[in-house]
Amino acid sequence: MITDRQLKEKWFKFFEEHGFKKIEGFSIIPENDPTVLFTTAGMHPLVPYLLGEKHPAGNKIYDVQRCIRTSDIDSVGDASHLTFFEMLGNWTLGQCDKTTMIKLSYEFLTSPKYLGLDKNKLAVTVFAGNAVAPRDEEAYNAWKSCGIENIFFTSEDNWWALGGGVGPCGPDTEMFYDTGKEKCSENCSPSCDCGKYLEIWNDVFMQYVVEKAGQQAQKLALPNIDTGMGLERTVAIINGAESVYDSGCLKRVIDFINQNATVKYTENESATRSYRIITDHLRSSTFILGDARGVLPSNVGQGYILRRFIRRAVNHSRNIGFDCKLFANIVDIFVDEYGQDYADIKSNRELIKDELLKEVSKFSKALEDGHKEFEKVINGIERHKEFASKNGEKVENIINGKSAFRLYDTFGFPLELTIELAKERGYEVDSEGFNQMFKEHQEKSRQATAGMFKGGLADTSNQSAFLHTATHLLLAGLQKMFGKGVVQKGSNITPERLRFDFNLDHKMTAEELMEVENFVNEAISRAIPVKCEVMSLEQAKKCGAHGTFTNKYGDEVKVYTIGDVSKEICGGPHAENTSQLHHFKIIKEESSSSGIRRIKAILD
After folding, report:
1. Which helix (H) or strand (E) holds 464?
2. Is residue 103 pLDDT above 50, yes or no?
């Protein structure tokens, strides 16, 4: 048996012994990245260094990163899917020695000193080659030299690329554990979804780059290796657990719910799924609410996802007869477990519980309003039936997809609840129509966050870099006006505009906005050089550098100084001189959430 903490410690010890340096994990809310709502992978915050920038800790680094992915949210409830997870990662920057990395992977997986897995239960996939790059013989030979026999070649599953196919790319090799289940067919392989093989580790070899859409990939001047191991899934496999929910902290939460719910965990498939969704979604909510960047439930962005997590947990609690007031007890279990690694959730324990229960209360009210809306829908159909009968027409007892979706989107009614209520009244629900509306909604959401890709690489264009520099000047202006207690609570930058969140207890006046805007433009007009220095965190603090999230860059940090205006710890990229920003214009100031204001601005 192994615990989450023991696996982390083994990971740290192994890579330290092999010359890698530990860096601290980043916030779960990305900084200055418009492509994703949450940190989706360990490599996500390291983009500048994967593109050639020198990392203060050197070219061999490792960490553990908290991540949230919502792409598989509908799969949560099965044995392996999670929205929140911890990712163990390591990187070799500026070089791509695949044979060495594969041998390190094999050693960590099979050595009795570390995981001690049976090599005969390991299966790996290797890139089979395509029009862009040849078959990865080096990776294949490396695995063969380790004594691995179960090697599978694929092209699509083993090629890593950015969304749209432009940027760094390359082959990868993925490691799977054979659960012992029967093969689903003669062609059963790790590419199947039958559950025989579970992926536990992935080595990505960024060897190529596509400069423009439609062009052939060229060799990358400074290739990298990026690896990632899912903590929870690996622990479950080593412990022989049937699911990721049946070991460690997740099991403790399942057991707590089981003690307090009227329907038990394994009573039926629906109950099992509800238990797992509640557990997963409340863990994700704990980390989002407790994050240093101050995300609260709302109808947009990260706040919308948070609201969806909480409301889904409420709905599934209704399914099993679990009192939502006990959500606070579950938060305590998570904070007790993770607080020693993530100080922000520990210090925000009471805030997490308060905001969680506030949202539960709001949703309870929304459900009441939804029941009223449901009655309106039924009454409307009844009136239509009465009118139609006078003309000899027949109207069926069906709630259309549009009405069902409105109940879901506006009042939080899941389709299952609408179907249940409709059945009690002798009605059916147009589920296909609902699903069509839901797909259209998903597509609109996808387009709104277009640019998201595997790994979440940030935009690094000159215009984005200039806007990033503008956020430093903006923060300096806000602090001059309202004091040093004003700090960044979130930032989202595209090549077209910046969006900057900060703490303030009132709506800014037109005069205040004009004063801040003038402050930034005065700094731009002075043509101040933007100076970057690498120093220890202690040196940065002593020289007066501002940094709200100073634990994310490790022992050494980058400090960007803009004359006498701004000195901040930051990862870049930035303008070289403020004159490159031309002119700064605030286009909107609004509320982001309670106590948090948001400024949107452009450079013209």
Report:
1. helix 462-482
2. yes
Shared domain for 279 and 403, answered yes or no, is no
| Helix (H) / strand (E) containing 202 | strand 197-210
DSSP state of 533: E
331, 234: one domain: no
CA distance 173 to 150: 13
Side-chain-side CA neighbours of 603 within 13 Å: the count stands at: 26
Between CA 481 and CA 473 the distance in angstroms is: 12
Q: Within a 13 Å sphere around the CA of 560, how many CA atoms are in the beta-carbon half?
A: 24
Look at residues 448, 481, 497 and tell me which one is the last residue of a structural domain: 448
**The last residue of a domain, from among 394, 414, 448:** 448
The alpha carbon of 267 is separated from its chain's Cα centroid by a whole number of angstroms, namely 32
CA distances from 301 to 16, 38, 93, 135, 304 (A): 38, 10, 32, 40, 5
303 C-beta neighbours (distance < 10 Å), count: 18
Query: What distances in angstroms separate CA 290 from CA 44, 343, 533, one per listed residue?
Result: 20, 9, 31
DSSP of 469-514: HHHHHHHHHHHHHH-TT--EEEEEE-SS-EEEEEE-SSPPPHHHHH
> The domain spanning residue 211 has which CATH number?
3.30.930.10
Please give the C-alpha separations between residue 13 and each of 8, 62, 504, 552, in angstroms, as whole numbers: 9, 11, 43, 20
Q: Rg of the chain's alpha carbons, rounded to an integer?
A: 26
- Distant-in-sequence, close-in-space partners of 68: CB < 8 Å, separation ≥ 6: 28, 38, 39, 40, 83, 84, 284, 287, 288, 305
Among the residue ranges 93-107, 179-193, 471-485, the one predicted with the least confidence is 179-193
Task: Count Cβ atoms below 10 Å from residue 15 Cβ, excluding itself.
Answer: 22
Q: How many CA atoms lie within 13 A of 66 on its CB side?
A: 24
Query: Stretch 215-230: mean pLDDT, rounded?
Result: 88
In a shared domain, residues 492 and 590? yes
Give the C-alpha separation, 521 to 234, whole Å.
Answer: 52
pLDDT of amino acid 409 = 80
* Residues whose CB falls within 8 Å of the CB of residue 562, separated by 6 or more in sequence, listed in order: 469, 472, 473, 476, 523, 528, 530, 531, 578
pLDDT of residue 454: 41
Distance, in Å, from the CA atom of 45 to the CA atom of 31, rounded to the nearest integer, reads 8
Q: What is the mean pLDDT of residues 466-472?
A: 92
Residue 456 lies in a domain: no
Give the Cα separation of 535 and 559 in Å (integer): 7
The answer to whether 459 and 35 are in contact (CB under 8 A) is yes
Question: What DSSP state is assigned to residue 114?
Answer: T
Q: What are phi and psi of 8, to 5 degrees?
A: -60, -45
Mean pLDDT of 337-365: 92
Domain that holds residue 317: 247-358
Token readout for 213 is 């859409």
Q: What is the mean pLDDT of the chain?
A: 87
61: its two tokens: 């680094």
Which pLDDT does position 481 carry in this prediction? 93
Does the N-terminal peptide bond of residue 573 adopt cis geometry, omega within 30 degrees of 0?
Answer: yes
